[in-house]
Amino acid sequence: xxxxxxxxxxxxxxxxxxxxxxxxxxxxxxxxxxxxxxxxxxxxxxxxxxxxxxxxxxxxxxxxxxxxxxxxxxxxxxxxxxxxxxxxxxxxxxxxxxxxxxxxxxxxxxxxxxxxxxxxxxxxxxxxxxxxxxxxxxxxxxxxxxxxxxxxxxxxxxxxxxxxxxxxxxxxxxxxxxxxxxxxxxxxxxxxxxxxxxxxxxxxxxxxxxxxxxxxxxxxxxxxxxxxxxxxxxxxxxxxxxxxxxxxxxxxxxxxxx
Length: 258
Prior knowledge:
Layout: E1 17-20, H1 26-37, E2 41-46, H2 53-59, E3 65-69, H3 77-89, E4 94-97, H4 112-140, E5 143-148, H5 161-181, E6 186-193, H6 202-206, H7 208-216, H8 230-237, E7 248-251
Parallel strand pairs: 1-2, 1-4, 2-3, 4-5, 5-6, 6-7
Helix pairs in contact: 1-2, 1-8, 3-4, 4-5
């Protein structure tokens, strides 16, 4: 492509169909709304009822929003979710594997009761959903898969070895699937959020000393706002990122450089 031919329309998601797991709460809602604002219709499987907040935000953009109650940790459910998205929206162009949990406990108390649910949600469900989406995208000749990693993909995970392990695993899975699916026109990337002001970090933000330590480690000198993730989401979901593959885009205000 000649440089003069590049058009900012490459960032548009007009006419795209997106599936965002857990896309009606926390950072998932930011991913969903970002895609809708860029022009995509969105299908959201979730086990959480948000009282219609996300639906209102998406339809306010003039886009379709379909929400279904689904536990994607149950074997076979991701296949039904992907099939439901294709049936409701007419196809699947973008998958954001957003669903995730973080359970914390000291090392001597962190046992299989803590470990297993996190692996099921953060790793296995993400794999199974991406696998099913990949089959659809391969037949269609292309697509975008965006996994959600974390700073814990690169750092230790005091208080939650399962979170650190699954988020490190997501990075490995992202790279492996890039290697497998790139030849089919599918880009597989990940977003690694830093410390964001969400319900998951409420306890830390409410503890003055802990909150101070976090902010002092961030060159931007503030907690991330979910809206800070929206541009990265649109970029990785759009044609503007067609030659970006197997990449982990860190959105952390500079945390990792300190």
